[in-house]
Design goal:
single chain; Neuraminidase; 4-stranded antiparallel sheet
């Protein structure tokens, strides 16, 4: 009785130490990271508000300078028009004064001839020229109240709080098993917002199936060889890499079209991102890099750590995490490398040696879920590692009789699809509450 209880306690302790305690440590670590990030983001926002205030003052100064300049220009035009009017009146005034002097001269001379020939010109000066009066209105700007300024600039948005649903189940369960009819099934990729997925083995055939096991479509690759990797874009179109002819193809409305032609580099892993870019692992004579394509144009290349050390060694599979991180499994080094969306190295996962795995950690397919968990197919140990976004192990999915898991994919409901290499099966596993 005591021995039985002791065995139960030992198993509970092992479970607590290997899975539950690390899970809480991981969550606590993420909360601390979130706290630091929140403080930084609030600081950045205050700095942005201060900078906006400086810009507002600058704009006000520019506007006031413009108002003063416009006022000065109106003043100049007013004075020019007054000057022109004065000159016109001055001419008339001088003419009248000359006429008066001339008439006085005639009267004083008592010259009979001038008196006899005199003709009045007064009528010429009766038409006084028109002139104008200028009224300068005062400056009455629109009232600028605090409320009006708030409405113009806008409000500071409240923090968006998103509750993270679920947690890793202690006992994941198989909710579906699909026989694909493939030989050595090695790739699977879910189609967003459906119960469908693409799957292939070591052949030139890519199948579109659903979780009911129905075969919906069969696609033969252009080169008649097995594709290296699969992905699906936001529209649900299949995209695959072909190591034989070094091309990347898209299948749209049943038609296969070459999307990217690489010539020298060989494409391996591929994934579609949240922005509908493509991330592709490329190999050339031992060199490996991850390249981001946007509409077939290279926009980013990721190859080295800051130390100059290569990040990748014969990459097998890749996926973009929901936080923008890029997750890549390396065959040659049996590691999973994670970089951020700028290509900066974050961490390298080498398997959790505390679990006493039977065989060497052999990562193949990788997937992510809505909680930013990273799921890794450990082929030779017949399990799936679930780690958090910072590389801490959370749990192993080892209770679903998984056999040689080669590739993984998660659907829109966070169901895990596992492609088993030595069977023709794709197992659908529920692992989150």
């Amino acid at each position: 009785m005591c021995n039985s209880k002791q065995d139960i306690i030992r198993k509970d302790v092992q479970k607590l130490e290997s899975e539950l305690a690390p899970a809480f440590e991981s969550i606590f670590s993420e909360i601390e990271i979130m706290e630091s990030d929140v403080l930084n983001k609030h600081g950045e926002r205050r700095q942005a508000i201060t900078e906006f205030g400086r810009k507002c003052h600058k704009v006000v100064d520019i506007v006031m300078t413009k108002y003063l300049s416009d006022s000065k220009e109106i003043e100049r035009r007013d004075l020019d028009s007054i000057k022109s009017l004065k000159a016109k009146i001055q001419d008339q005034k001088s003419s009248v004064k000359s006429e008066i002097q001339e008439k006085h001269s005639i009267l004083e001379s008592k010259d009979a001839f001038k008196l006899a020939s005199y003709t009045s010109k007064n009528n010429e000066y009766r038409d006084v020229p028109s002139w104008f009066e200028l009224k300068i209105p005062p400056f009455h700007p629109n009232e600028l109240s605090e409320l009006a300024l708030f409405q113009l600039i806008g409000e500071i948005p409240e923090t968006e709080k998103t509750y993270i649903r679920g947690h890793v189940l202690e006992e994941p369960e198989i909710v579906g098993t699909v026989s694909t009819g493939n030989h050595e099934t090695n790739r699977v990729n879910c189609i967003p917002n459906t119960n469908e997925f693409y799957v292939c083995g070591v052949s030139e055939i890519i199948k579109r199936m659903n979780t009911e096991g129905e075969l919906l479509e069969m696609i033969t690759t252009k080169s008649k060889t097995s594709p290296s990797n699969l992905t699906v874009n936001r529209e649900g179109d299949l995209i695959y890499t072909d190591v034989d002819d070094k091309n990347i193809y898209i299948v749209k409305n049943g038609q296969i079209r070459c999307l990217i032609r690489l010539f020298k580099w060989t494409p391996r892993g591929i994934c579609s991102t949240s922005s509908d870019d493509l991330l592709v692992a490329l190999l050339l004579k031992g060199d490996t890099k991850i390249v981001r394509y946007s509409d077939s144009t290279v926009t980013q290349e990721i190859q080295y750590k800051d130390t100059g050390e290569p990040l990748y060694h014969d990459p097998a599979s890749m996926e973009e995490n929901k936080n923008g991180d890029i997750v890549v499994s390396n065959w040659a080094t049996n590691t999973v490398v994670v970089v951020n969306n700028e290509g900066k190295f974050k961490f390298e996962y080498k398997g959790n040696h505390q679990n006493n795995l039977e065989d060497t950690f052999t990562p193949d397919g990788v997937a992510t879920d809505s909680m930013c968990h990273i799921l890794i197919a450990d082929r030779n140990n017949h399990i799936v590692h679930v780690i958090d976004r910072n590389g801490q192990i959370l749990v192993y999915i080892d209770s679903c009789n998984i056999q040689y898991p080669y590739d993984l994919s998660t659907d829109s409901k966070d169901m895990l699809f596992v492609a088993e290499f030595k069977t023709d099966l794709v197992k659908v596993i529920k692992y989150l509450k």
